[in-house]
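Figure S4 source data
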Amino acid sequence: MKLQKLVYYSQAWSLVWDDKPLFDSKIEAWVDGPVVPDLYQEHKGKFTVSIDDFNGDVSNLSSDNISTIDEVLKAYSDKNAQWLSDLTHMEDPWLNARKGLLGSQRGNNEITLDSMGEYYSSL
């Protein structure tokens, strides 16, 4: 869960600081907070993950991408997964995407890039 939230915040702050998305995969408003389904499929069923669990290529990242990710990690990596999930539950992008769903009701409504950019740029 923590990985999902760190990826979510990396996307959010990339939209604000770099004026573009960090990645193309969509983000959905699941019960426990924002989730990137494509990433979830890569680590589903694992309690911990390592770099060897993924097929990414760091050379695809620009210096701006790396700087954004580094800043997100400085700000959030010391927080636990539940704290990060709770934080997302207080923020408009997740709340708005969950409208009409009960608290524990599953859903896959998308958290749009526009909603993320608008919200996080106002902070």
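Figure S5 source data
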Amino acid sequence: MKIEHIAIWTLHLEEMKTFYETYFSAKAGKQYHNPNKQFRSYFLSFDEGPRMELMHRPGMSQNSGSTDLTGITHLAFSGGSRAAVDQLTEKLRREGYVVAGEPRVTGDGYYESVILDPDGNHIEITE
């Protein structure tokens, strides 16, 4: 078995698509639109691993952003090196994104930082 894709509801469909394309080299497919359900989505592909589906429909509300709830708490992207973690973290900081966790070695041995995407999802950047 393998993970085929991970889906994320978003209030900011185009902004989220651009964020993952710009900073994580995602490639977006054509937007899917179901007018009956007022549903729109994009599938994003990466060089390796599962795809990501970004989904939107009117009337949604923002999640709390808490990491103390059940469910998916973060997504992790590997930059391949400590230097890549540091560089991308600083680029995101300069461009106004929240750095929720500075680059560091964690207790389980990862070198990582944590940033928030446009919807406040926790994104780990690992070596």
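The mean pLDDT is 92. The two ends are 25 Å apart (CA to CA).
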